[in-house]
Amino acid sequence: MIIYNEPSSNFLEHILENKIGYVLEQNVKKYMNKSISASELRSWENSLPQMAKVLRDADLKDNTHILLEYNLPSTEKRIDFLIAGHDKKGRRNAVIVELKQWQKAKVVKSDGIVRTFLGGRERETVHPSYQARSYKRFLQNFNEALYQDSTINLTSCAYLHNYIPARTNEPLLDPSYLNYIEDSPIYFQFNDRELAEKLRNDVSEGNGFEIAKSIEEGKIRPSKKLVETVNSLFQGNEEFILLDEQKVAYEKVIALFEEVIRTSTAKHTILIKGGPGTGKSVIGLNLMNYLLSRDSNIEYITPNQAFREILRKKLVGSSGFVEIRNLFKGSASYVETPKNYYDVLVCDEAHRLKNQGHMKRKIEGENQATQIIRASKLSVFFVDDNQVISNKDIGNFDLIKEEAKKLNSEVHVVELDSQFRCSGSGNYIDWLDNIFNEDEMLVPLEGDYDFQVVDTPQELIRKVIDEQNGRVMAGYAWEWDKKLVDGELPNDVVIKEMGFAMPWNDPNRIDWAIHPECAYQIGCIHTVQGLEMEYAGVIIGNDLGYDPETKSLVVRREHFKDRGARPARPKKDQVDLLDKLVRNTYKTLMTRGMKGCYVYCCDEELGKYLREKIKYSI
């Protein structure tokens, strides 16, 4: 969606009359039915007059077209400024200009990342040239008007109109950013004439209406090149082979897709139920691959940001094709998506869906499941009610089924049973179920899965990280101070009586589970859900213990520190919902390891209890 598409003469008139902020504000209300913040209004009123000066210097014909605030579909990202027209040789061009009000920046070692002052504090963000380039490449790979019509040449740049660069060693011109700057040049405060010259060369002959219209109305779906790249990643890759009921679930979705294609009025929702390690993500990724090859408009949804980032890195890292990232979205991306806009939406880890997205416009009577079902002809949900770990998680089986019925979407259910994680040991999963459900008839722990209870957290680190190159996780039984101390992460996970202290995982490293610099950090449930590793270590905090007198597990509310996930205290005679959330958390953590899981218990009695259950099994 574009909220402003006008000839340059109209744009300059709106600037001259000091009306541009008002016009954009009214257009947002008209086209998006929402209000804008005061800071966004100030941003327009500060940056757009600077672009008007550049346009006047460029001496453009009146019918050069200006597009403002182009919302990249199913993302929160908007292109600030896009100008379309012909050059003197009659070629059709469009230029993206990313506008920034920055005044200073610092180099960051991470690829394409800088540090600057944003939102009231200094934080890390992408380099302006990287941002402009990524928006350009998104359009080139997802907007049909651009990848099917080779006559429209799209370029990009960044304009930092308040930024006076340092005379030497300017951070934004650091050699580490050179490949992005070469693709999308960066212009500073006194480079306005150079930017004007670029626009004069590219679009000065005007006649940009048809170009702008093509871009605005172009259908959003992956390009053939992107589809072929994704397909090549799956060919012959053993990691994505479907087995038994995985294949059954996959073919069921394909059959429903064929019906959706044949019948324009058909609308279906399929719920695929399966515990940890039943191969839900393998099915989902295979579906994405096949349906892309069928020219389907499909996206893959994961509510867990860390899980989403790992999936992106695995595929992008194998191909080098960064636009693959745009096929993976968060669950809050569909608030404003029109009905049946997508052919298929695949939602992994659907039990983590929320009522509404963070900082999102709320729609009465809708939640994220509603929005996904409404936005697609065929919605696919992978769900496990036993992995709900927060009072904000609403995506249970019954709720999704009910929301589908409300939207007249026919519901189908497939169940997965076979275990493909934990050395294929469904027995270990059953044993954990018995432990956490406190069933009287305990299933013996048998098979090849390597499960141990260790005596110290130091032993856990040695066995899991040093010897097996695994990762150690913990329940949310410690406060999390995300502020750096002398440039280092603070040691929040502290077990004084054992002389142990380590930091929680770096909140700026979403890929904690696979990044080599993050090995000696403790992962939390929000970082690891949906992921797997060969060996997993788990520190069970004092939020979970064992009472030998009552011979039962106990959940201690005072030791549970995740305020955002913690439900309210129960009233008299009510069940404490926290009890199930803590049990689900530890069961989920203890099923991340493919070959083995080692556990250290802060509660001594719980450690004894688990050891006894292992002995009983032997």
Automatic annotation (TrEMBL):
GO molecular function, one term: helicase activity
Record's keyword annotation contains Nucleotide-binding: yes
Record-annotated AAA+ ATPase domain positions: 266-417
Keyword ATP-binding annotated: yes
Highest taxon of source: Bacteria
Gene3D superfamilies for this protein: P-loop containing nucleotide triphosphate hydrolases
This protein's UniProt keywords: ATP-binding, Helicase, Hydrolase, Nucleotide-binding
Name of this protein: DNA/RNA helicase domain-containing protein
Organism the protein comes from: Sporosarcina siberiensis
